[in-house]
Amino acid sequence: MAWLVTGGAGYIGAHVVDAMRQAGEDVVVLDDLSTGDAARIPGVDLVVGSVGDAGLLTRLLAGRAVEGVVHVAAKKQVEESVRDPLLYYRENVAGLVTLLEAVTAAGVPSFVFSSSAAVYGAPDVDLVTEATDCRPVNPYGETKLVGERVVEALARATGLRYAHLRYFNVAGCARPELADRGRSNLVPMVFEQLVAGRPPRVFGDDHPTPDGTCVRDFVHVADVASAHVAVAQALRDGRTAALTANIGRGEGVSVREVVEIIRAVTGTADAPWAEPVVEPRRAGDPPRVVASADLLRDRLGWRARHDVEEMVRSAWAGWGSPALPGPAAGESDPVRAGGGRATPVP
Ligand SMILES: NC(=O)c1ccc[n+]([C@@H]2O[C@H](COP(=O)([O-])OP(=O)(O)OC[C@H]3O[C@@H](n4cnc5c(N)ncnc54)[C@H](O)[C@@H]3O)[C@@H](O)[C@H]2O)c1
Q: What is the residue with the minimal CA distance to atom 7 of ligand 1?
């Protein structure tokens, strides 16, 4: 019996595939390779296609003994979702419905859904628990919340066993070749600035937080992956039938603190050109979003094991650890002053 991992050639999906195989699970991946890369999952049974392709899903599920689905595939860019909400509703909601129709027709008993802290929106609480009100503030977050509701309604109708995993800020990589190649998360965004010889940008230092910058809960992608293994096995074994759980460390780290860890790891801690530049707050950025990670620990004994420095170190290795201009290099223009424009390893 195999687990079907949709989006298994993507950043998080490939880590889930890796962890599930290491745990002895058989895996088949469905990925349209829109942002994924088959090279992340050599030797894995990969079906190239969309979760919105009903015919393909029917053939896939008829041809393989699938005991559960881990549905990671989705669009995930907040700004894009504001510009093009229908794309997000089609991919993340209509795609999910099509997948669930095939899952139901094939009688697949278990379903793990990649949800997000975006379902909470801008929660005004110290620690976000799974009981905190869900009030998403953009179409991306809305599609994740609607997705949860769709799965729950189906579970009530058919007895489908399910888990919604609400990831907080995912970072790092288990191996360099699995690194995040997107530029939408804080760590790669800062790397991108530094390798171009530009200072990191911090959006707002006047938030009601200890250092004025936003506070988030960063969680290593290898920990995210291990949570999937624990949850998938618990669903299969009947230890849980309906679960909604935060995936975070339960610790807040400010954007400024992360930038300083990145500067230390990249050797730019003393470089004046790499001092962060403060720009105006971004509209809708909540000051603090930090998970309570107790529920999954109490229910399944899972907890995150890696700290933020490990996330940054592994992510930097995934970028090929390029040499950056040192402290003395061109306080006016580090690139022209000989630092060189390092090329990130894709
Ligand atoms: N990265 C984060 O910090 C974060 C945080 C919270 C939630 N999530 C969720 O985790 C999931 C994975 O995110 P990621 O960072 O790995 O993104 P990613 O873009 O690297 O991975 C998405 C994968 O899904 C595939 N895909 C997209 N649309 C598809 C479709 N219609 N059919 C088949 N495959 C399709 C892509 O090719 C890619 O391989 C998403 O559901 C996202 O919403 C991510």
A: 116
Rounded CA gap, 162 and 143, in Å?
Answer: 17
Domain ranges for the chain: 2-171+219-247
Kindly report the pTM of this predicted structure: 0.94
Domain 2-171+219-247: top CATH class: alpha beta
Q: Considering 11, 120, 140, 162, which one is annotated as catalytic?
A: 140
Compute CA distances 95 → 72, 135, 155, whole Å: 12, 22, 17
Structure tokens, 43: 């030797």
Beta strands across the sheet bearing 215-216:
253-254, 215-216, 288-289
Cα 226 to ligand 1 centroid, rounded to whole Å: 17
Please give the single-letter amino acid code of residue 10.
G
Among this protein's residues, is 140 annotated catalytic? Answer: yes
> In angstroms, rounded to a whole number, what is the distance separating the alpha carbons of residues 7 and 4?
10
pLDDT by residue (tens digit) across 252-291?
999 999 999 999 999 999 999 999 999 999 888 899 999 9
Q: Can you say whether the dihedral through the CA atoms of 135, 136, 139, 140 is positive or negative? A: negative
> Ligand 1 mean position to 335 CA, how many Å?
34
Q: Rounded distance, CA 33 to CA 84, Å? A: 20
